[in-house]
Task: inverse folding
Protein backbone atom coordinates (compact mmCIF):
# COMPACT_ATOMS: atom_id res chain seq x y z
CA UNK A 1 0.00 0.00 0.00
CA UNK A 2 1.18 3.47 -0.76
CA UNK A 3 2.28 4.98 2.48
CA UNK A 4 0.63 8.29 1.71
CA UNK A 5 -2.77 6.65 1.79
CA UNK A 6 -2.83 5.96 5.46
CA UNK A 7 -2.72 9.69 6.13
CA UNK A 8 -5.43 10.79 3.74
CA UNK A 9 -7.43 7.72 2.88
CA UNK A 10 -9.04 7.11 6.22
CA UNK A 11 -10.32 10.64 6.50
CA UNK A 12 -11.52 11.16 2.98
CA UNK A 13 -13.00 7.74 2.33
CA UNK A 14 -15.56 7.67 5.09
CA UNK A 15 -18.09 5.64 3.11
CA UNK A 16 -18.45 2.01 4.16
CA UNK A 17 -16.86 -0.46 1.75
CA UNK A 18 -19.21 -1.82 -0.86
CA UNK A 19 -20.26 -5.46 -0.78
CA UNK A 20 -17.99 -8.14 -2.19
CA UNK A 21 -20.55 -8.99 -4.85
CA UNK A 22 -19.84 -5.65 -6.49
CA UNK A 23 -16.10 -6.17 -6.37
CA UNK A 24 -14.12 -6.91 -9.52
CA UNK A 25 -10.71 -8.54 -9.81
CA UNK A 26 -8.00 -5.91 -9.12
CA UNK A 27 -5.53 -7.56 -11.49
CA UNK A 28 -7.94 -7.19 -14.40
CA UNK A 29 -8.65 -3.49 -13.82
CA UNK A 30 -7.64 -1.59 -16.94
CA UNK A 31 -5.62 1.55 -16.19
CA UNK A 32 -4.64 2.36 -19.77
CA UNK A 33 -4.98 5.86 -21.17
CA UNK A 34 -5.09 7.12 -24.76
CA UNK A 35 -3.98 10.56 -25.83
CA UNK A 36 -5.18 11.30 -29.36
CA UNK A 37 -2.72 13.35 -31.43
CA UNK A 38 -2.17 14.03 -35.15
CA UNK A 39 0.04 10.91 -35.42
CA UNK A 40 -2.76 8.71 -34.11
CA UNK A 41 -3.09 7.97 -30.44
CA UNK A 42 -0.46 7.59 -27.76
CA UNK A 43 -1.42 4.64 -25.62
CA UNK A 44 -0.06 4.56 -22.09
CA UNK A 45 -0.25 1.52 -19.82
CA UNK A 46 -1.39 3.56 -16.82
CA UNK A 47 -2.07 7.22 -15.95
CA UNK A 48 0.93 8.04 -13.75
CA UNK A 49 3.83 10.14 -15.02
CA UNK A 50 6.56 11.89 -13.07
CA UNK A 51 6.18 15.68 -12.87
CA UNK A 52 8.82 17.56 -14.79
CA UNK A 53 11.46 19.09 -12.59
CA UNK A 54 11.11 16.47 -9.87
CA UNK A 55 12.40 13.48 -11.84
CA UNK A 56 15.73 14.84 -13.09
CA UNK A 57 16.54 13.00 -16.31
CA UNK A 58 15.51 9.63 -14.95
CA UNK A 59 18.96 8.50 -13.90
CA UNK A 60 18.53 9.79 -10.34
CA UNK A 61 15.70 7.28 -9.82
CA UNK A 62 17.56 4.21 -11.04
CA UNK A 63 18.69 3.30 -7.48
CA UNK A 64 15.02 3.09 -6.47
CA UNK A 65 13.05 1.59 -9.35
CA UNK A 66 13.26 1.10 -13.12
CA UNK A 67 12.32 4.60 -14.40
CA UNK A 68 10.27 2.87 -17.12
CA UNK A 69 7.80 1.86 -14.39
CA UNK A 70 6.22 5.23 -15.15
CA UNK A 71 4.05 4.91 -18.25
CA UNK A 72 5.87 7.83 -19.85
CA UNK A 73 8.66 10.08 -18.66
CA UNK A 74 8.54 13.84 -18.46
CA UNK A 75 12.14 14.91 -17.90
CA UNK A 76 13.29 18.16 -16.35
CA UNK A 77 12.70 21.21 -18.58
CA UNK A 78 15.05 21.74 -21.51
CA UNK A 79 15.86 25.14 -22.98
CA UNK A 80 17.98 25.95 -26.02
CA UNK A 81 20.65 27.50 -23.84
CA UNK A 82 22.36 26.12 -20.75
CA UNK A 83 20.68 27.50 -17.63
CA UNK A 84 22.69 27.68 -14.44
CA UNK A 85 19.62 28.14 -12.31
CA UNK A 86 19.00 30.46 -9.37
CA UNK A 87 21.35 31.19 -6.48
CA UNK A 88 20.88 29.07 -3.34
CA UNK A 89 19.10 28.58 -1.04
CA UNK A 90 16.75 27.09 -3.55
CA UNK A 91 14.12 25.34 -1.48
CA UNK A 92 12.44 25.45 1.89
CA UNK A 93 9.77 23.30 3.45
CA UNK A 94 6.47 24.99 4.25
CA UNK A 95 3.41 23.36 5.89
CA UNK A 96 2.60 20.30 3.74
CA UNK A 97 4.53 21.93 0.94
CA UNK A 98 7.84 22.74 -0.63
CA UNK A 99 8.71 26.21 -1.88
CA UNK A 100 11.37 26.18 -4.57
CA UNK A 101 13.29 28.55 -6.73
CA UNK A 102 15.50 26.22 -8.77
CA UNK A 103 15.40 28.49 -11.81
CA UNK A 104 15.01 25.77 -14.46
CA UNK A 105 18.66 24.70 -14.19
CA UNK A 106 19.29 22.49 -17.21
CA UNK A 107 22.15 21.39 -19.46
CA UNK A 108 20.71 22.98 -22.61
CA UNK A 109 19.56 21.41 -25.85
CA UNK A 110 22.91 20.17 -27.23
CA UNK A 111 23.95 18.43 -24.03
CA UNK A 112 20.44 17.00 -23.61
CA UNK A 113 20.59 15.37 -27.04
CA UNK A 114 24.10 14.07 -26.53
CA UNK A 115 24.09 12.85 -22.93
CA UNK A 116 20.62 12.73 -21.43
CA UNK A 117 18.25 11.61 -24.18
CA UNK A 118 20.06 8.28 -24.81
CA UNK A 119 19.67 7.42 -21.11
CA UNK A 120 15.98 8.36 -21.18
CA UNK A 121 15.50 6.22 -24.27
CA UNK A 122 17.07 3.24 -22.52
CA UNK A 123 14.05 3.10 -20.19
CA UNK A 124 11.88 1.93 -23.06
CA UNK A 125 8.81 4.08 -22.39
CA UNK A 126 7.51 7.16 -24.24
CA UNK A 127 9.24 10.44 -23.48
CA UNK A 128 7.32 13.71 -23.32
CA UNK A 129 10.05 16.34 -23.53
CA UNK A 130 9.32 19.33 -21.32
CA UNK A 131 10.35 22.52 -23.10
CA UNK A 132 10.93 26.05 -21.78
CA UNK A 133 11.90 29.12 -23.71
CA UNK A 134 12.21 32.87 -23.61
CA UNK A 135 10.76 33.32 -27.09
CA UNK A 136 8.48 31.32 -29.35
CA UNK A 137 11.54 30.62 -31.52
CA UNK A 138 13.30 29.03 -28.51
CA UNK A 139 10.49 26.53 -28.02
CA UNK A 140 10.45 25.77 -31.74
CA UNK A 141 14.21 25.18 -31.84
CA UNK A 142 14.01 22.56 -29.09
CA UNK A 143 11.04 20.76 -30.66
CA UNK A 144 12.64 20.74 -34.11
CA UNK A 145 15.87 19.30 -32.73
CA UNK A 146 14.21 16.57 -30.68
CA UNK A 147 11.41 15.62 -33.09
CA UNK A 148 11.81 12.21 -34.68
CA UNK A 149 14.12 10.82 -31.99
CA UNK A 150 13.11 7.30 -30.92
CA UNK A 151 10.56 7.20 -28.07
CA UNK A 152 10.03 10.96 -28.14
CA UNK A 153 6.24 10.76 -28.42
CA UNK A 154 5.51 14.35 -27.61
CA UNK A 155 6.19 17.54 -25.70
CA UNK A 156 4.99 19.24 -22.60
CA UNK A 157 5.36 22.98 -23.16
CA UNK A 158 6.02 24.86 -19.96
CA UNK A 159 3.87 27.90 -20.67
CA UNK A 160 4.59 29.65 -17.40
CA UNK A 161 7.70 31.51 -18.54
CA UNK A 162 8.35 35.14 -19.35
CA UNK A 163 8.29 35.89 -23.07
CA UNK A 164 11.26 38.23 -23.18
CA UNK A 165 10.56 39.45 -26.71
CA UNK A 166 6.97 40.49 -26.23
CA UNK A 167 7.23 41.27 -22.54
CA UNK A 168 4.45 38.89 -21.58
CA UNK A 169 4.26 35.74 -19.59
CA UNK A 170 3.22 32.84 -21.75
CA UNK A 171 0.40 31.25 -19.85
CA UNK A 172 -0.87 34.48 -18.30
CA UNK A 173 -2.22 35.73 -21.59
CA UNK A 174 -4.45 33.42 -23.65
CA UNK A 175 -3.27 34.95 -26.90
CA UNK A 176 0.41 34.49 -25.97
CA UNK A 177 -0.30 30.86 -25.08
CA UNK A 178 -2.21 30.32 -28.30
CA UNK A 179 0.47 31.87 -30.50
CA UNK A 180 3.08 29.63 -28.90
CA UNK A 181 1.02 26.48 -29.48
CA UNK A 182 0.22 27.54 -33.06
CA UNK A 183 3.93 27.99 -33.76
CA UNK A 184 4.95 24.61 -32.34
CA UNK A 185 2.00 22.61 -33.70
CA UNK A 186 3.28 22.22 -37.30
CA UNK A 187 6.65 20.98 -36.03
CA UNK A 188 5.34 17.73 -34.54
CA UNK A 189 2.60 15.20 -35.12
CA UNK A 190 3.17 13.78 -31.65
CA UNK A 191 1.41 14.75 -28.43
CA UNK A 192 1.51 18.45 -27.64
CA UNK A 193 0.71 19.07 -24.01
CA UNK A 194 0.46 22.58 -22.53
CA UNK A 195 1.45 22.85 -18.87
CA UNK A 196 -0.53 25.73 -17.44
CA UNK A 197 0.28 27.99 -14.55
CA UNK A 198 -2.24 28.34 -11.71
CA UNK A 199 -1.24 31.97 -11.27
CA UNK A 200 -4.18 33.23 -13.32
CA UNK A 201 -7.74 34.24 -12.56
CA UNK A 202 -9.30 31.89 -15.08
CA UNK A 203 -7.31 28.77 -15.91
CA UNK A 204 -10.07 27.45 -18.17
CA UNK A 205 -9.60 30.42 -20.48
CA UNK A 206 -5.93 29.46 -20.91
CA UNK A 207 -6.87 25.83 -21.51
CA UNK A 208 -9.40 26.76 -24.17
CA UNK A 209 -6.87 29.02 -25.90
CA UNK A 210 -4.28 26.23 -25.88
CA UNK A 211 -6.59 23.54 -27.25
CA UNK A 212 -8.08 25.80 -29.91
CA UNK A 213 -4.51 26.50 -31.03
CA UNK A 214 -3.90 22.77 -31.36
CA UNK A 215 -2.80 21.35 -27.99
CA UNK A 216 -3.60 17.63 -27.60
CA UNK A 217 -3.61 17.72 -23.82
CA UNK A 218 -3.48 20.14 -20.91
CA UNK A 219 -1.47 19.60 -17.76
CA UNK A 220 -2.44 21.58 -14.65
CA UNK A 221 -1.07 22.87 -12.39
CA UNK A 222 2.47 24.16 -12.32
CA UNK A 223 3.65 25.53 -8.96
CA UNK A 224 1.85 28.38 -7.23
CA UNK A 225 3.77 31.62 -6.76
CA UNK A 226 4.44 31.88 -3.05
CA UNK A 227 6.80 33.21 -0.39
CA UNK A 228 8.52 32.20 2.81
CA UNK A 229 10.42 34.81 4.81
CA UNK A 230 12.34 35.28 8.03
CA UNK A 231 10.94 38.38 9.69
CA UNK A 232 13.95 38.68 12.02
CA UNK A 233 16.44 39.11 9.20
CA UNK A 234 13.88 40.53 6.80
CA UNK A 235 15.07 38.06 4.18
CA UNK A 236 13.43 35.54 1.93
CA UNK A 237 14.04 31.93 2.94
CA UNK A 238 14.90 31.15 -0.67
CA UNK A 239 17.38 32.85 -3.00
CA UNK A 240 14.67 34.80 -4.79
CA UNK A 241 11.82 36.85 -3.38
CA UNK A 242 9.10 34.46 -4.51
CA UNK A 243 9.17 30.83 -5.59
CA UNK A 244 6.90 28.03 -6.65
CA UNK A 245 4.88 26.08 -4.09
CA UNK A 246 4.22 22.36 -4.54
CA UNK A 247 3.14 19.43 -2.39
CA UNK A 248 -0.13 18.41 -0.68
CA UNK A 249 -0.65 22.02 0.42
CA UNK A 250 -1.72 22.91 -3.12
CA UNK A 251 -3.75 19.78 -3.87
CA UNK A 252 -7.21 21.24 -3.18
CA UNK A 253 -6.40 24.17 -5.47
CA UNK A 254 -5.09 21.81 -8.15
CA UNK A 255 -8.26 19.74 -7.86
CA UNK A 256 -10.45 22.79 -8.38
CA UNK A 257 -8.39 23.93 -11.36
CA UNK A 258 -8.30 20.44 -12.90
CA UNK A 259 -12.09 20.37 -12.64
CA UNK A 260 -12.40 23.77 -14.33
CA UNK A 261 -10.12 22.70 -17.16
CA UNK A 262 -11.83 19.32 -17.59
CA UNK A 263 -15.16 21.11 -17.96
CA UNK A 264 -13.75 23.60 -20.45
CA UNK A 265 -11.91 21.33 -22.90
CA UNK A 266 -12.44 17.92 -24.51
CA UNK A 267 -8.78 16.83 -24.67
CA UNK A 268 -7.25 14.56 -21.99
CA UNK A 269 -6.23 16.53 -18.91
CA UNK A 270 -3.15 15.63 -16.91
CA UNK A 271 -3.59 16.69 -13.28
CA UNK A 272 -0.63 17.75 -11.14
CA UNK A 273 -0.52 19.06 -7.59
CA UNK A 274 0.32 17.35 -4.34
CA UNK A 275 -0.55 13.81 -5.38
CA UNK A 276 0.79 11.23 -2.93
CA UNK A 277 -1.36 8.11 -3.37
CA UNK A 278 -4.03 6.29 -5.36
CA UNK A 279 -6.79 8.00 -3.40
CA UNK A 280 -5.52 11.39 -4.61
CA UNK A 281 -5.34 10.15 -8.20
CA UNK A 282 -8.94 8.99 -8.07
CA UNK A 283 -10.10 12.38 -6.84
CA UNK A 284 -8.50 13.99 -9.87
CA UNK A 285 -9.97 11.28 -12.12
CA UNK A 286 -13.35 11.96 -10.55
CA UNK A 287 -13.31 15.57 -11.77
CA UNK A 288 -12.31 14.29 -15.20
CA UNK A 289 -8.52 14.06 -15.35
CA UNK A 290 -7.21 11.24 -17.59
CA UNK A 291 -3.61 11.36 -16.43
CA UNK A 292 -1.69 12.55 -13.41
CA UNK A 293 1.85 13.55 -12.55
CA UNK A 294 3.47 12.84 -9.22
CA UNK A 295 6.12 15.37 -8.25
CA UNK A 296 7.19 16.50 -4.80
CA UNK A 297 6.05 13.23 -3.23
CA UNK A 298 8.81 11.47 -5.20
CA UNK A 299 11.39 13.23 -3.01
CA UNK A 300 9.90 11.53 0.04
CA UNK A 301 9.00 8.19 -1.59
CA UNK A 302 10.95 7.79 -4.84
CA UNK A 303 9.90 4.14 -5.14
CA UNK A 304 6.19 4.72 -4.48
CA UNK A 305 4.83 4.00 -7.96
CA UNK A 306 4.34 0.20 -7.89
CA UNK A 307 2.43 0.53 -4.61
CA UNK A 308 0.29 3.35 -6.00
CA UNK A 309 -0.64 1.30 -9.08
CA UNK A 310 -1.59 -1.72 -6.97
CA UNK A 311 -3.70 0.44 -4.71
CA UNK A 312 -5.29 2.17 -7.69
CA UNK A 313 -6.44 -1.19 -9.09
CA UNK A 314 -7.64 -2.36 -5.70
CA UNK A 315 -9.63 0.79 -5.00
CA UNK A 316 -11.29 0.73 -8.43
CA UNK A 317 -12.05 -2.99 -8.10
CA UNK A 318 -13.50 -2.48 -4.63
CA UNK A 319 -16.06 -0.10 -6.12
CA UNK A 320 -16.83 -2.45 -8.98
CA UNK A 321 -15.03 -0.55 -11.73
CA UNK A 322 -13.36 -2.57 -14.48
CA UNK A 323 -11.29 0.36 -15.68
CA UNK A 324 -10.14 3.81 -14.69
CA UNK A 325 -11.91 5.20 -17.75
CA UNK A 326 -15.32 3.97 -16.60
CA UNK A 327 -14.89 5.75 -13.27
CA UNK A 328 -13.40 8.96 -14.69
CA UNK A 329 -15.62 12.03 -14.45
CA UNK A 330 -18.04 10.58 -11.89
CA UNK A 331 -17.96 13.79 -9.88
CA UNK A 332 -21.23 15.56 -9.11
CA UNK A 333 -23.65 14.06 -11.64
CA UNK A 334 -24.61 17.52 -12.85
CA UNK A 335 -25.68 18.88 -9.51
CA UNK A 336 -23.27 21.76 -9.18
CA UNK A 337 -22.72 23.00 -12.67
CA UNK A 338 -23.19 26.64 -11.75
CA UNK A 339 -20.32 28.66 -10.38
CA UNK A 340 -20.75 29.36 -6.65
CA UNK A 341 -21.89 32.92 -7.12
CA UNK A 342 -24.75 31.85 -9.40
CA UNK A 343 -25.94 28.89 -7.37
CA UNK A 344 -29.45 29.37 -6.03
CA UNK A 345 -29.68 29.59 -2.27
CA UNK A 346 -31.71 26.59 -1.06
CA UNK B 1 28.95 0.15 -21.07
CA UNK B 2 26.93 1.65 -18.27
CA UNK B 3 27.92 0.76 -14.72
CA UNK B 4 25.24 -1.02 -12.68
CA UNK B 5 23.55 1.38 -10.28
CA UNK B 6 23.91 0.76 -6.56
CA UNK B 7 20.50 0.17 -5.04
CA UNK B 8 19.23 2.70 -2.56
CA UNK B 9 17.01 1.33 0.19
CA UNK B 10 13.79 2.94 1.39
CA UNK B 11 12.29 1.00 4.23
CA UNK B 12 10.97 0.98 7.73
CA UNK B 13 13.34 -0.18 10.48
CA UNK B 14 13.03 -0.76 14.20
CA UNK B 15 14.31 1.72 16.74
CA UNK B 16 16.33 -0.14 19.38
CA UNK B 17 17.29 2.76 21.65
CA UNK B 18 16.86 6.49 22.04
CA UNK B 19 19.51 7.80 24.40
CA UNK B 20 19.19 11.31 25.78
CA UNK B 21 22.57 13.04 25.63
CA UNK B 22 21.42 16.27 27.28
CA UNK B 23 21.13 19.80 25.90
CA UNK B 24 18.49 18.63 23.39
CA UNK B 25 20.80 16.02 21.87
CA UNK B 26 19.98 12.34 21.52
CA UNK B 27 21.24 9.23 19.81
CA UNK B 28 18.96 6.87 17.89
CA UNK B 29 20.10 3.26 17.45
CA UNK B 30 18.24 1.61 14.59
CA UNK B 31 18.26 -2.05 13.60
CA UNK B 32 18.81 -1.86 9.84
CA UNK B 33 21.11 -4.72 8.79
CA UNK B 34 20.95 -4.40 5.02
CA UNK B 35 21.49 -0.66 5.09
CA UNK B 36 24.05 -0.55 7.90
CA UNK B 37 26.31 -3.02 6.12
CA UNK B 38 26.58 -0.72 3.10
CA UNK B 39 27.25 2.61 4.82
CA UNK B 40 30.64 4.33 4.92
CA UNK B 41 31.59 7.33 7.04
CA UNK B 42 30.36 10.58 5.53
CA UNK B 43 27.34 9.03 3.89
CA UNK B 44 23.90 9.97 5.11
CA UNK B 45 20.36 8.70 5.41
CA UNK B 46 17.10 10.59 4.90
CA UNK B 47 14.63 10.11 7.74
CA UNK B 48 10.92 10.32 7.05
CA UNK B 49 9.27 12.14 9.92
CA UNK B 50 5.61 11.28 10.25
CA UNK B 51 4.55 14.14 12.48
CA UNK B 52 1.28 14.75 10.71
CA UNK B 53 1.11 15.65 7.06
CA UNK B 54 2.70 19.05 7.42
CA UNK B 55 6.30 17.79 7.49
CA UNK B 56 6.74 16.76 3.91
CA UNK B 57 10.45 16.51 3.40
CA UNK B 58 12.77 13.88 4.84
CA UNK B 59 15.54 15.02 7.19
CA UNK B 60 19.14 14.16 6.27
CA UNK B 61 21.50 12.77 8.92
CA UNK B 62 25.09 11.62 8.59
CA UNK B 63 25.49 8.21 10.12
CA UNK B 64 27.16 8.50 13.53
CA UNK B 65 27.97 4.90 14.33
CA UNK B 66 27.67 1.35 13.05
CA UNK B 67 27.54 -1.70 15.30
CA UNK B 68 28.84 -4.20 16.13
CA UNK B 69 31.50 -2.73 13.80
CA UNK B 70 31.60 -0.69 10.59
CA UNK B 71 31.62 -2.84 7.46
CA UNK B 72 29.79 -5.85 6.10
CA UNK B 73 28.87 -7.15 9.57
CA UNK B 74 27.12 -3.98 10.73
CA UNK B 75 23.49 -4.54 11.65
CA UNK B 76 22.71 -1.39 13.59
CA UNK B 77 23.20 2.24 12.66
CA UNK B 78 23.13 5.22 14.96
CA UNK B 79 22.18 8.80 14.31
CA UNK B 80 23.18 11.78 16.40
CA UNK B 81 20.35 14.28 16.47
CA UNK B 82 19.82 17.73 17.95
CA UNK B 83 16.27 18.85 18.62
CA UNK B 84 16.09 22.04 16.60
CA UNK B 85 12.59 22.01 15.13
CA UNK B 86 9.36 20.07 14.67
CA UNK B 87 11.01 17.25 12.68
CA UNK B 88 13.78 16.54 15.15
CA UNK B 89 11.32 17.06 18.00
CA UNK B 90 9.18 14.24 16.60
CA UNK B 91 12.30 12.11 16.32
CA UNK B 92 13.12 12.71 19.97
CA UNK B 93 9.70 11.35 20.90
CA UNK B 94 10.45 7.98 19.27
CA UNK B 95 10.61 5.01 21.63
CA UNK B 96 12.28 1.59 21.29
CA UNK B 97 10.17 -0.62 19.07
CA UNK B 98 8.90 2.31 16.99
CA UNK B 99 9.41 2.15 13.24
CA UNK B 100 11.88 4.56 11.64
CA UNK B 101 11.58 5.11 7.91
CA UNK B 102 15.03 5.52 6.33
CA UNK B 103 16.31 6.12 2.82
CA UNK B 104 19.96 5.41 2.12
CA UNK B 105 22.87 5.13 1.90
CA UNK B 106 23.15 8.52 0.19
CA UNK B 107 26.10 10.73 -0.75
CA UNK B 108 29.74 9.87 -1.14
CA UNK B 109 31.92 8.55 1.68
CA UNK B 110 34.51 10.86 3.22
CA UNK B 111 37.86 10.57 1.42
CA UNK B 112 40.98 8.84 2.73
CA UNK B 113 43.77 11.36 2.15
CA UNK B 114 46.93 9.81 0.78
CA UNK B 115 49.25 10.85 3.60
CA UNK B 116 52.85 9.83 4.18
CA UNK B 117 53.56 7.78 7.31
CA UNK B 118 54.71 10.89 9.21
CA UNK B 119 51.62 12.87 8.18
CA UNK B 120 48.88 14.16 10.44
CA UNK B 121 45.16 14.03 9.64
CA UNK B 122 43.00 16.58 11.44
CA UNK B 123 39.32 15.86 11.92
CA UNK B 124 37.62 19.11 12.86
CA UNK B 125 34.07 18.99 14.14
CA UNK B 126 31.47 21.33 15.54
CA UNK B 127 27.86 20.70 16.53
CA UNK B 128 26.17 17.89 14.63
CA UNK B 129 29.27 17.70 12.45
CA UNK B 130 30.96 15.38 14.94
CA UNK B 131 28.68 12.55 13.77
CA UNK B 132 30.42 11.49 10.54
CA UNK B 133 33.85 12.17 12.07
CA UNK B 134 33.19 9.65 14.82
CA UNK B 135 32.25 6.94 12.32
CA UNK B 136 35.33 7.90 10.32
CA UNK B 137 37.51 7.29 13.39
CA UNK B 138 35.80 3.98 14.05
CA UNK B 139 36.57 2.92 10.49
CA UNK B 140 40.22 3.85 10.95
CA UNK B 141 40.35 1.82 14.16
CA UNK B 142 38.64 -1.24 12.71
CA UNK B 143 40.95 -1.12 9.68
CA UNK B 144 43.93 -1.07 12.06
CA UNK B 145 45.11 2.22 10.57
CA UNK B 146 48.34 3.64 12.02
CA UNK B 147 47.61 7.09 10.61
CA UNK B 148 48.21 9.89 13.12
CA UNK B 149 44.74 11.37 13.27
CA UNK B 150 43.62 14.02 15.73
CA UNK B 151 40.10 15.05 16.49
CA UNK B 152 39.43 18.71 17.28
CA UNK B 153 35.99 19.45 18.68
CA UNK B 154 34.50 22.86 19.22
CA UNK B 155 31.48 24.08 21.15
CA UNK B 156 30.26 27.16 22.96
CA UNK B 157 30.66 25.48 26.34
CA UNK B 158 31.82 22.17 27.84
CA UNK B 159 28.26 20.83 28.26
CA UNK B 160 27.82 21.10 24.50
CA UNK B 161 30.87 19.01 23.62
CA UNK B 162 28.58 16.19 22.51
CA UNK B 163 30.34 12.96 21.66
CA UNK B 164 33.65 13.86 23.29
CA UNK B 165 33.63 10.82 25.57
CA UNK B 166 32.92 8.49 22.68
CA UNK B 167 36.03 9.71 20.87
CA UNK B 168 38.10 9.31 24.01
CA UNK B 169 36.81 5.76 24.53
CA UNK B 170 37.90 4.97 21.00
CA UNK B 171 41.42 5.97 21.97
CA UNK B 172 41.52 8.82 19.44
CA UNK B 173 43.68 11.81 20.31
CA UNK B 174 41.03 14.42 20.99
CA UNK B 175 41.39 18.14 21.68
CA UNK B 176 38.55 20.45 22.40
CA UNK B 177 37.90 24.14 22.24
CA UNK B 178 35.16 26.04 24.02
CA UNK B 179 34.17 29.62 23.43
CA UNK B 180 33.81 30.23 27.17
CA UNK B 181 36.99 28.37 28.09
CA UNK B 182 35.09 25.84 30.25
CA UNK B 183 37.01 22.95 28.69
CA UNK B 184 40.23 22.68 26.70
CA UNK B 185 41.38 25.51 24.46
CA UNK B 186 39.67 28.81 25.14
CA UNK B 187 38.42 30.03 21.80
CA UNK B 188 37.01 28.54 18.65
CA UNK B 189 38.05 25.25 17.12
CA UNK B 190 39.60 26.88 14.05
CA UNK B 191 41.96 28.90 16.25
CA UNK B 192 42.79 25.62 18.01
CA UNK B 193 43.57 24.02 14.66
CA UNK B 194 45.71 27.01 13.77
CA UNK B 195 47.76 26.66 16.94
CA UNK B 196 48.12 22.90 16.39
CA UNK B 197 49.39 23.54 12.88
CA UNK B 198 51.87 26.09 14.21
CA UNK B 199 53.17 23.43 16.57
CA UNK B 200 53.99 21.00 13.76
CA UNK B 201 57.30 20.79 11.96
CA UNK B 202 56.97 22.62 8.64
CA UNK B 203 57.80 19.50 6.64
CA UNK B 204 55.00 17.44 8.26
CA UNK B 205 52.40 16.48 5.66
CA UNK B 206 48.97 17.63 6.80
CA UNK B 207 45.45 16.89 5.65
CA UNK B 208 42.06 17.26 7.24
CA UNK B 209 38.33 16.93 7.10
CA UNK B 210 35.95 19.41 8.68
CA UNK B 211 32.28 19.14 9.39
CA UNK B 212 30.37 21.69 11.38
CA UNK B 213 27.96 24.58 11.32
CA UNK B 214 28.15 27.18 8.58
CA UNK B 215 30.35 29.60 10.53
CA UNK B 216 32.89 26.92 11.42
CA UNK B 217 32.98 25.61 7.88
CA UNK B 218 33.56 29.12 6.52
CA UNK B 219 36.38 29.81 8.99
CA UNK B 220 37.96 26.45 8.17
CA UNK B 221 37.71 27.17 4.46
CA UNK B 222 39.35 30.56 4.92
CA UNK B 223 42.17 29.02 6.97
CA UNK B 224 42.68 26.11 4.57
CA UNK B 225 42.81 28.37 1.51
CA UNK B 226 45.02 30.92 3.31
CA UNK B 227 47.54 28.29 4.41
CA UNK B 228 47.17 26.13 1.30
CA UNK B 229 46.04 23.09 3.28
CA UNK B 230 44.82 19.83 1.82
CA UNK B 231 41.41 19.85 3.53
CA UNK B 232 37.91 18.65 2.79
CA UNK B 233 34.74 20.16 4.18
CA UNK B 234 31.47 18.31 4.59
CA UNK B 235 28.45 20.53 3.92
CA UNK B 236 24.99 20.42 5.45
CA UNK B 237 22.92 22.21 2.82
CA UNK B 238 19.15 21.81 2.92
CA UNK B 239 18.31 18.75 0.84
CA UNK B 240 14.72 18.23 -0.29
CA UNK B 241 15.44 14.87 -1.95
CA UNK B 242 18.99 13.77 -1.11
CA UNK B 243 19.51 11.79 -4.30
CA UNK B 244 20.08 14.41 -6.99
CA UNK B 245 16.61 14.88 -8.43
CA UNK B 246 15.56 18.27 -7.11
CA UNK B 247 18.67 20.45 -7.63
CA UNK B 248 17.78 22.17 -4.37
CA UNK B 249 21.01 21.74 -2.36
CA UNK B 250 23.47 23.19 -4.84
CA UNK B 251 26.70 25.14 -4.31
CA UNK B 252 28.44 27.19 -6.99
CA UNK B 253 31.82 26.19 -8.39
CA UNK B 254 34.75 28.34 -7.15
CA UNK B 255 35.43 31.73 -8.67
CA UNK B 256 37.59 31.39 -11.76
CA UNK B 257 36.17 28.00 -12.75
CA UNK B 258 33.41 27.35 -15.26
CA UNK B 259 30.38 28.73 -13.40
CA UNK B 260 27.85 26.07 -12.56
CA UNK B 261 25.95 24.73 -9.58
CA UNK B 262 26.84 21.33 -8.11
CA UNK B 263 24.52 19.13 -6.09
CA UNK B 264 25.82 18.66 -2.56
CA UNK B 265 23.82 15.45 -2.04
CA UNK B 266 25.29 13.43 -4.90
CA UNK B 267 28.63 15.14 -5.62
CA UNK B 268 29.33 15.62 -1.89
CA UNK B 269 28.50 16.20 0.84
CA UNK B 270 32.30 16.35 1.36
CA UNK B 271 34.28 18.60 -1.01
CA UNK B 272 37.99 19.46 -1.24
CA UNK B 273 38.43 23.13 -0.34
CA UNK B 274 39.73 23.97 -3.83
CA UNK B 275 36.35 22.97 -5.25
CA UNK B 276 34.38 25.27 -2.96
CA UNK B 277 33.42 28.91 -3.56
CA UNK B 278 35.11 31.41 -1.25
CA UNK B 279 31.76 32.20 0.46
CA UNK B 280 29.87 29.09 1.50
Result:
Amino acid sequence: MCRGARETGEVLNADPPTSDANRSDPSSVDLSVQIPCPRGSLELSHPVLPASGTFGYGEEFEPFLPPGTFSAIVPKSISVEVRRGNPPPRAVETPAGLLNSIGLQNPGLDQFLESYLPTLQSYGVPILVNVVGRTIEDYCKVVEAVEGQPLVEGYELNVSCPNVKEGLLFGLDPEATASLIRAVRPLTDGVLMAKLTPNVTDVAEQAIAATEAGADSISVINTLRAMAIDWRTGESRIGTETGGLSGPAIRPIALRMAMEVCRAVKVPVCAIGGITCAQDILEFASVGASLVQVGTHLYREPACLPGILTELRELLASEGYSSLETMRGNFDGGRYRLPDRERPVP
Amino acid sequence: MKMPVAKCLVDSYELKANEDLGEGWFRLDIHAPEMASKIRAGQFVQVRVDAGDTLLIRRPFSVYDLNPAPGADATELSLLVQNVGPGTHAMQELRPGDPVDLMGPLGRPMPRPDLAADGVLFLVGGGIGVAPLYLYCRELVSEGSTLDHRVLLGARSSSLLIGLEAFEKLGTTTHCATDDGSDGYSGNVIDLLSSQLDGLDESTPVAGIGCGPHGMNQALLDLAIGRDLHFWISLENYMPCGFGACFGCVIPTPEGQEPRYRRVCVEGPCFPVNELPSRL
Q: What stands out?
A: Chain B touches chain A at residues 2, 5-8, 10, 48, 50, 53-58, 101, 103, 237-238, 240-252, 259-261, 266 (CB under 8 Å).
